[in-house]
Amino acid sequence: MMHYRAIWISDVHLGTSGCQANYLLDFLRHNDADRFYLVGDIIDGWRLKKSFYWPQAHNDVVQKLLRKARKGTEVIYVPGNHDESARQFFGMSFGDVKVVEEVIHTTLDGKKLWVTHGDLFDGVMQYAKWLAYVGDTLYSFILYINRYFNMIRIRMGLQYWSLSQYLKHQVKNAVSYIADFEHIMAREARLRGCDGVVCGHIHKAEIREIDGLLYCNDGDWVESLTALVETQTGELKIIHWPHIKGEPLEALETRNLPAAELFIKEATL
Description:
The protein is of the alpha/beta class and about 270 residues long. It contains 7 helices and 13 strands. It has a single domain, classed as Metallo-dependent phosphatases (Purple Acid Phosphatase, chain A, domain 2).
């Protein structure tokens, strides 16, 4: 079990078939922290309003997070756009999980990181929300195809690979949108007197410096299968978890999946 000062995850999208709950559950079984930040879109309220989908693995993820909170981990929940209904509970706690609008995390070396989901600074979400809903429908269709594609890969002993992420990175407009979002978030962190920002929303894990500010995105558990962590020595890293490390989980996608080594993609300032 690895123990960190802090772990950030976002964009889990529980309640959708695209959610890679088994990989996240395996990650939670092997990693713990003093503080655990849930940076939005943990449960996909948009999708659940259309049709109910809640397999056992999704329930297990929720129970695992609640168990960590009961055992002393400080769990802080910052809702996003897909779980925006939770924003009515700012300032409240549920099962030892604190619900907040945003929060400041102080790293070991004293840097102040503003933690927010990021959708409130997305022009599409603010000025053309209907377009976001249309995009979400198309995105869900790609994830549907991707799910069965990866079932075949897993039976062949290969790691998870995201078709939607691949397509996103090939489209010039999508790449431009991501770059604009990153710069906006860095600018907003500066306005708040912070040294950097930790966010989610765009499903692209990243640690880099933008105009002297630290920009961190913890990725997602639909495409990237990533989390952001701060080690006990104060180092920030992105952890990529594309294999099930422990014993096979009881799910169709991971049945008969052999144990595999942890893949870590590290990025430091």
